[in-house]
């Protein structure tokens, strides 16, 4: 498949029918297949019908622009905000409340059409349910509003203008007007306006970090160096930044056909499934609906048997179904997730999607990027080799752990080269910061060398001023070394040539080696020592540089003038030196040393007998003295190894997916614990046994390191085998498409996958994952928009904190739902007994609302603050198939056990108050029709006393209030037992002050509702005698004791016991 050759019909013209979405996505997932980087330039010019010097004509460009379209990314269809709002308003649990509200309005309509003065309870309930669902929907919408801005972020990356050659003329055109075949020029500071093949280049480097994940600038030359288009040096890609030099190139791909365009369309076109919590809520709705319909239909049939009319039976059916709807649960779950999201934000995990709060807790596989997530994204000198020993670099501010002599002549020589052959400098205003945290100008490797020497010796800037640079040969991909020549403050006034670069290239240019400050001839033995050290450092995944120097005779290369001669013979030079110092902007008065340094530069370049010419290389580059090696690595973050250990103990597989080199990736993986110290890859096992890799059984090796080129050849089944057979996996040199394939492979295993990333290349995988985690500091805008969560400190350890919080909130949501559902039974059973026994209604609809949206809300929310019962990071991730948020055992406990005890307490209070007022239970049976008849004002009780209609209703509302009070009393015990699912409350303690406040709140609210004057008219709440609060108290104690005994047996019986299977939810 080709994406760049317009001659093969790969056009996006109007006449072309769009491919089916599935087919198009499959094509985008394929690896980049192109040959524009391999073929000869003349062949490419011929294919693209262009000319290197003249470019294309304006007419040609116009025709191609009309055919191929502008050089910009095609925005995908976006979801209107009103649709997103409607999803919040009508999706998931909200739908259940809407159904309940509609049924209430239907029931009220039926009653209103059949009774002249119908009760408005169902109308009020319907209105309340509507208000609740609208308010919660609005709250959720504003909490989770994250419109798909992925393509907007890509649009910000598009360059505005480009320098193009058309008809032999160099002109500036809008980047959107570029077409395939254009000859363009790119310079330092520009953003590459299209995918281009490099034709000529001068020290040209690009920042590919957003595209490939490589942290260091990449050199770009006309040379074809790699079969992989993403790794060859003769291609530069759309939207990457030019950080050094200039180049001329020919446009080979534009718009959606660029590598960035493919990633953009892949990221925006991916469809994601429901989050785990959304699936749990859907399962909960099915359970509740099933229970409600079963009870409703059952009592609908019973109503007919008992002789009720069909209209009455329908009203009973609706009433029972509505009574099963936990009105306050939607708001409770939303608020609990919001509170956890805020708590996670305080721990550097910013949640964009509320449902992602729990998803992270369900994660069973984490696919983590390396650079900046597992590592510090800061190159640091790790080791040094001199005097034939490898030393650890000391990175402490006080140099307290240095295991080498900092005054050693060999180290001083090595440090001098690292100081002088180095363009990196500390930024102004960084002096007060610790050395390792200072920001530098210059590339990452040179900054690491600068910080290392500054820590060890100090005074780098002053030393450079005392030994100014006369000539420099920058690093290039051909020579693979950097060279500079300096004047020195040595007594003999000799010049110093210093060089650093690829170790093997540096060694080949040396004839001597510095050992303990003395020069020894290079020999086979020293070469063997050098190669051993080089291999040892490289095997640690570190980037190794070689260092050498040479003294140049001042008499041969220049007349060197000292300061006193300048003062005596050339005062004008001294004045010029003074001026240069002042122009340089030194804060302190210019010293003699500073003036002399600048004067020397002028003297050597302009007054000396010899002029150094880096182009002609008129100075020695062989016969040098080898001084040593320094190796650098982006070190792991300090907290990462412990975080990986926690993941392992929590049953979470951590997979490294990086664009970096396999050796480096493997070294970091071992350093942070992704690969255990005792684990061996198949290659290592084969090497140990002296056999080929094919003879090793994959199941013998827990660890494996897979190169992107090997992954490209693997089938989906082979990828599944790797993921199934290996627990410690590293994928290196991966492309964006491969990262996506890895995520899909993990999901095929049934894993809930979290993906971390910071670059544009990570955006497809971030979106496809169950939860995408972007980096807040180093992350691109595109990755942040594609992700569900952002790590504010770019630290992998913060993910583990998020996992812990997610697991806690899942457990606590179970407790909160159990608490809320339990009161459903004492709310439903009065209505059922009202139908079957034909007694006056024990509990009214308005009173139920006071419970669900009043007294129960705060206590339910307070359970979100409950601490974990045990070390939840030592148990396996929950099984999404079997470990449900709401399961049959929870329903059984809430409805069949605790709820029944609560209902018994409520009815006991009801019958006590009725009996105290003259109505014994035997008198109440079958009394409902007479009780509710307004025409009967002389209804006799068990003692023959006559009751008017208004007196009966006042007694009925008093019973409603007492039943309400009894539910509050038994909910005290329910809240206490819901604190834990296994532990005793005496183990857990009462340290959750929010829960203590919840107890106080529901009691205070219940008292206020009972005794506030005037509420008897609005809410039908009557003042109660103090003694009427007490009958429910024994039932509350029974609930507490019953559950404590159950938990005691749970802890004592072996795992998997019948009690655990039946009651542990």
TrEMBL record:
TM stretches of this protein: 89-110, 122-142, 284-308, 314-337, 894-913, 994-1014, 1026-1042
Species of the source: Cichlidogyrus casuarinus
SMART domains cross-referenced by the UniProt entry: Cation_ATPase_N
Designated name of the protein: Sodium/potassium-transporting ATPase subunit alpha
Basic and acidic residues composition-biased segments: 1-13
Compartments it resides in: Cell membrane
Segments of this protein annotated with the region Disordered: 1-24
SUPFAM superfamilies: Calcium ATPase, transduction domain A, Calcium ATPase, transmembrane domain M, HAD-like, Metal cation-transporting ATPase, ATP-binding domain N
A GO CC term attached to the entry: plasma membrane
Keywords: ATP-binding, Cell membrane, Ion transport, Membrane, Metal-binding, Nucleotide-binding, Phosphoprotein, Potassium, Potassium transport, Sodium, Sodium transport, Sodium/potassium transport, Translocase, Transmembrane, Transmembrane helix, Transport
Membrane topology label: Multi-pass membrane protein
Cation-transporting P-type ATPase N-terminal domain boundaries: 35-109
Cross-referenced Pfam families: Cation_ATPase (PF13246), Cation_ATPase_C (PF00689), Cation_ATPase_N (PF00690), E1-E2_ATPase (PF00122)
Biological processes per GO annotation: potassium ion transport; sodium ion transport
GO MF entries: ATP binding; metal ion binding
Coiled-coil regions listed: none
InterPro entries to which the protein is assigned, alphabetical: ATPase_P-typ_cation-transptr_C, ATPase_P-typ_cation-transptr_N, ATPase_P-typ_cyto_dom_N, ATPase_P-typ_P_site, ATPase_P-typ_TM_dom_sf, ATPase_P-typ_transduc_dom_A_sf, ATPase_P-type_domA, Cation_transp_ATPase_P-type
Quaternary structure (record): The sodium/potassium-transporting ATPase is composed of a catalytic alpha subunit, an auxiliary non-catalytic beta subunit and an additional regulatory subunit.
């Amino acid at each position: 498949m080709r994406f760049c050759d317009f001659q093969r019909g790969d056009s996006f013209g109007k006449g072309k029918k769009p491919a089916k979405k599935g087919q198009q996505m499959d094509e985008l997932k394929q690896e980049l297949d192109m040959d524009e980087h391999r073929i000869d330039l003349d062949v490419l010019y011929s294919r693209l019908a262009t000319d290197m010097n003249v470019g294309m004509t304006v007419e040609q460009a116009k025709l191609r622009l009309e055919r191929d379209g502008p050089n910009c990314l095609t925005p995908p269809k976006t979801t209107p905000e009103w649709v997103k709002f409607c999803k919040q308003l009508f999706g998931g649990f909200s739908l259940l409340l809407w159904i309940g509200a509609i049924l209430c309005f239907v029931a009220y309509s039926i009653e209103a059409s059949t009774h002249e003065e119908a009760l408005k309870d169902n109308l009020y309930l319907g209105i309340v349910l509507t208000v609740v669902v609208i308010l919660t929907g609005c709250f959720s919408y504003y909490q989770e509003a994250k419109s798909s801005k992925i393509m907007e972020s890509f649009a910000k990356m598009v360059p505005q203008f480009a320098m193009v050659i058309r008809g032999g003329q160099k002109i500036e055109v809008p980047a959107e007007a570029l077409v395939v075949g254009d000859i363009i020029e790119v310079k330092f500071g520009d953003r590459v306006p299209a995918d281009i093949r490099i034709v000529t280049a001068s020290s040209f480097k690009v920042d590919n970090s957003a595209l490939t994940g490589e942290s260091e600038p990449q050199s770009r030359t006309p040379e074809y160096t790699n079969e992989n288009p993403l790794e060859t040096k003769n291609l530069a890609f759309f939207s990457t930044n030019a950080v050094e030099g200039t180049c001329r190139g020919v446009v080979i791909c534009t718009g959606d056909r660029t590598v960035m365009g493919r990633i953009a369309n892949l990221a925006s076109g991916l469809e994601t499934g429901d989050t785990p919590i959304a699936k749990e809520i859907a399962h909960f709705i099915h359970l509740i609906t099933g229970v409600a319909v079963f009870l409703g239909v059952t009592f609908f049939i019973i109503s007919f048997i008992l002789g009720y009319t069909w209209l009455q039976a329908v009203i009973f059916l609706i009433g029972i179904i509505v009574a099963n709807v936990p009105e306050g649960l939607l708001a409770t779950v939303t608020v609990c997730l919001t509170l956890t999201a805020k708590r996670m934000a305080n721990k550097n995990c910013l949640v964009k999607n509320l449902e992602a709060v729990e998803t992270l807790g369900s994660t069973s596989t984490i696919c983590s990027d390396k650079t900046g997530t597992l590592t510090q994204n800061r190159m640091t000198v790790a080791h040094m080799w001199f005097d034939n020993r490898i030393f650890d670099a000391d990175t402490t501010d006080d140099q307290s752990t240095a295991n080498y002599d900092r005054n050693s002549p060999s180290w001083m020589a090595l440090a001098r080269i690292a100081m002088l052959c180095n363009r990196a400098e500390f930024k102004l205003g960084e002096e007060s910061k610790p050395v390792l945290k200072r920001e530098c100008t210059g590339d990452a490797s040179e900054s690491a060398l600068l910080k290392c020497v500054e820590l060890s010796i100090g005074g780098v800037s002053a030393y450079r001023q005392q030994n100014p640079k006369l000539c420099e040969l920058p690093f290039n991909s051909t020579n693979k070394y950097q060279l500079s020549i300096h004047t020195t403050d040595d007594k003999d006034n000799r010049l110093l040539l210093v060089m650093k670069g690829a170790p093997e290239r540096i060694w080949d240019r040396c004839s001597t080696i510095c050992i303990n400050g003395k020069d020894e001839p290079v020999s086979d033995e020293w070469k063997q020592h050098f190669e051993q050290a080089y291999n040892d450092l490289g095997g640690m995944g570190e980037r190794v540089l070689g260092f050498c120097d040479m003294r140049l005779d001042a008499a041969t290369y220049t007349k060197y003038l000292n300061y006193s001669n300048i003062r005596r013979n050339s005062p004008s030079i001294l004045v010029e030196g003074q001026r240069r110092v002042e122009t340089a902007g030194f804060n302190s008065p210019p010293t003699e040393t500073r003036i002399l340094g600048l004067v020397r530069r002028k003297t050597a370049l302009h007054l000396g007998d010899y002029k150094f010419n880096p182009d002609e290389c008129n100075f020695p580059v062989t016969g040098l003295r080898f001084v040593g090696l320094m190796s650098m690595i982006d070190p792991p973050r300090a907290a990462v190894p412990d975080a990986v250990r926690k993941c392992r103990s929590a049953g979470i597989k951590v997979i490294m997916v990086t664009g970096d080199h396999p050796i480096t990736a493997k070294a970091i993986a071992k350093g942070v614990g992704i690969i255990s110290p005792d684990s061996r890859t198949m290659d290592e096992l084969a090497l140990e046994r002296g056999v080929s890799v094919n003879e090793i059984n994959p199941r013998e090796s827990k660890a494996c390191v897979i190169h992107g080129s090997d992954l490209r050849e693997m089938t989906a089944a082979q990828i599944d085998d790797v993921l199934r057979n290996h627990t410690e996996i590293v994928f290196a040199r991966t492309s964006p498409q491969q990262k996506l394939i890895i995520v899909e492979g993990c999901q095929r295993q049934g894993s809930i996958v979290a993906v971390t990333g910071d670059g544009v290349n990570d955006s497809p995988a971030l979106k496809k994952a169950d939860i995408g985690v972007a980096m807040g500091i180093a992350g691109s805008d595109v990755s942040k928009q594609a992700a569900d969560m952002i790590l504010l400190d770019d630290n992998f350890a913060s993910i583990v904190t998020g996992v812990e919080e997610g697991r806690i909130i899942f457990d606590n949501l179970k407790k909160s739902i159990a608490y809320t559902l339990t009161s459903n039974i004492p709310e439903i059973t009065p209505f059922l007994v009202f139908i079957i026994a034909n007694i006056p209604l024990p509990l009214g609809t308005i009173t139920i609302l006071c419970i669900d949206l009043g007294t129960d809300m705060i206590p339910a929310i307070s359970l979100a603050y409950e601490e974990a019962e045990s070390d939840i990071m030592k148990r396996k991730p929950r099984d999404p198939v079997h470990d449900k948020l709401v399961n049959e055992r929870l329903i059984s406990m809430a409805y069949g056990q605790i709820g029944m005890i609560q209902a018994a307490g409520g009815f006991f209070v009801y019958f006590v108050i009725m009996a105290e007022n003259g109505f014994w239970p035997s008198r109440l049976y079958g009394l409902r029709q007479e009780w509710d008849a307004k025409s009967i004002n002389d209804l006799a009780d068990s003692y023959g006393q006559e009751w008017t209609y208004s007196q009966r209703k006042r007694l009925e509302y008093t019973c409603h209030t007492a039943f309400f009070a009894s539910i509050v009393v038994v909910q005290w015990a329910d809240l206490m037992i819901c604190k834990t699912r296994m532990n005793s409350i005496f183990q857990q303690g009462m340290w959750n002050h929010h829960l203590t406040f919840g107890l106080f709140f529901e009691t205070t609210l219940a008292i206020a509702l009972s005794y506030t004057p005037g509420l008897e008219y609005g809410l039908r709440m009557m003042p109660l005698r103090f003694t009427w609060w007490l009958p429910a108290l024994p039932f509350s104690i029974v609930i507490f004791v019953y559950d404590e005994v159950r938990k005691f047996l749970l802890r004592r019986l072996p795992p998997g016991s019948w009690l655990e299977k039946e009651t542990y939810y």
